[in-house]
Amino acid sequence: MKIFITLILVLLTLGLHAQITVKGKVTDKLGHPLVGANIIIKGTYDGTVTDSIGNFQLKVNADNLTLIATYIGYISQETAISTTQNPTIINFKLKEQSNQIEGVVITAGTFETADRKRSVTLQPLDIVTTPSATGDLYGALTSLPGTATIGEDGRLFVRGGDGYESKTFIDGLLSKKPYSSNVPDLPSRGRFSPFLFSGTTFSTGGYSAEYGQALSSALILNTNSFPQKTQTDISIMSIGGGVSQTFKGESSSISAGVEYMNLQPYYQLTTQRFEMNKYPESIGLTLVARQKFGDNGMLKIFSTYSGTQFGLQYPDLTVSGAMSNISIENKNNYTNLSYSDKLGKGWFLKSGVAFTIDQNDLNLQSYLVNESNRNVQAKITLKKNFNNNASLLFGTEETYNYFNQDYNEVSTAFSNNSNFNDFETAAFAEANYRPISKIALRAGIRGEHSSLLNDNNLGARLSAAVKVTGASQLSLAYGNFYQTPEENLLRFTHNLTFERANHYIANFQWEKSNRIFRIELYKKDYKNLVMYNAVEYWNGSLYNNLGKGHSEGIDVFFRDRKTFKSLDYWISYSYVDSKRIYRDYPIMVTPPFAPKHSASFVAKKWVQSITTQFGISTTFSSGRPYNNPNSTQFMDGKTPYYHDISINCSHLTTIFNKSTIIYCSINNLLGRDNIYGYRYYSQPDTNGVYEAFPIKADSKRFYFVGIFVTL
């Protein structure tokens, strides 16, 4: 690794020469700025995007270059660069497309957000400026339909599915632990900055056969191909700070960053529900390196490390009024090495290997849990384009997963060790065919084998789309999806099989003039879900795959960036009817992570006169089920409805002539006391009643202030 980084630094030094600056503005025919338009040097990976007022700036190295400006819903435009002047000024005025959906594309179950996709919903800038998200990638996705806001958890819960049913893939490779570790009732966050990714595909179902081991959804992230320029970024925040340095050469780049967070000053200024015995503290390191080979080859290294520790006093639910000191310490590293290339004659290669190393030490005072998880995935994919209307993708992957847990009870000296590893082999193939421009078909197949379960599965994925009008289309999707049971279910037995879900999806989408409307009907049938006895959870002989369930509903999404000048807003609504019997459930019921109704509204307004963007978001969901041991019925409790209003603002300015963003936000502005559910004491009181302890946020509001400077 050191030799490789040294080589890249040398190449960067050679590449930083004779640069001139090209800058300008991208507008529509009326002169309105186009925010987030792509500016690319033709025939290269180099490029940039326009800022919040349509301006761009790019450094180039050679003469006789051509710039291409593209924007969703507009006709792309090319302009030759004359490098006789420094800086060179080039302005683009793009014309709107009369027919935005030129050829049909399959959209059922999928939100595409890669730069040049038509169904754009969220870009990195959208994520960090969505008030309710607080800069978290997964938090922003909960403003899309099909997701549920589970405030005490923080993971993605999609269409009535559990959090473990959603998986994250980076450059096609699995990220085994994409969330930070957490303690009870305090939500986790995503480990990765949204600005590390140029393309995002959030699939709420029916996703490609290339991806597996996820019953509900796949979040597919593509890291940035190349940085815009050499620069230094500094962040000073109310909860910490960070610095990153990027070097960009002609064919190489390297970025390294460090971020430190300590919430002690913030917690001492605000009221918290729980008393901290160790204030949350973390350090994060990021390394991203890229090297071009030839005209189309690209090697990427993406590596992150995070270390986190914190502790608090939490109610001891065995004794009324007593408190326990609990703490957690987590160390995590994710490294992804990928290579892609165009091989000629319509062939494309994608390959890579990803490593996850996660160490979690949990101290709950009455017992100690130490967990280690190591995951390695190697994958190779080939794609052949026969013509503009037909392609075939196929590949194979090997995943090694190691899990170790040491459990120790302090009072009884009881201990248990669970240790196992699993080699999972998968092969997949998928064909895309468009017989005419108005019809698209996709058929895939995926097979998997688990050495731990000694079991195989074979699933089919089918999708079709038909163009209804010049701006609308109808898509259908069906698929079989399998997943190995979670590690905590394999601690006491390996005599289980894959869990399974079948997806059925119908989607209608209309997109025109920077407006998009989607409505999607879906149904999921669950089979082979793991069940066990809650009283004897340690008894492996009582584990089986007899669980089952279903989820069905409707998702609606509308986004408008056209009607009101400098205003971007979207509305989403989801209805889900979900029931299941699994784990220790005695009967078929709606699980606590599946509210029947969920809705969100996000709006962002740019005010040019003060170079500031204001944002507001509101999220609503109906009450969630919970189990009350004082009732004779299982899971018949219902929490109050959830409601959150969050606001933020981003002010663009300069400090010492350096580009600066001053950002502030307030979450849960009205201070609503949202209750997510209840925990109950293990023993009844003198009246025979089990006392309840509400599950809710650590504080009613969260305040954030940050200053971000680019040198």
Features:
711 residues; mainly beta; Maltoporin, Chain A; 2 domains; 56% strand; disordered N terminus
Task: Extract low-pLDDT stretches.
Answer: 1-17, 98-104, 112-121
Shape: globular
Q: Supply the helix-strand structural class.
A: mainly beta
- Structural domain count: 2
Q: Main beta sheet: strand number and arrangement?
A: 22 strands, antiparallel, barrel
Average pLDDT, to the nearest integer? 86
Q: Which CATH class of the largest domain applies here?
A: Mainly Beta
Q: Helical content, roughly?
A: under 10%
Strand content: over 45%
Tell me the radius of gyration.
26 Å
Find the count of extended strands (DSSP E, 2+ residues).
39
| CATH topology term of the largest domain | Maltoporin, Chain A
**CATH homologous superfamily label of the largest domain:** TonB-dependent receptor, beta-barrel domain
CATH architecture of the largest domain: Beta Barrel
> How many helices?
4
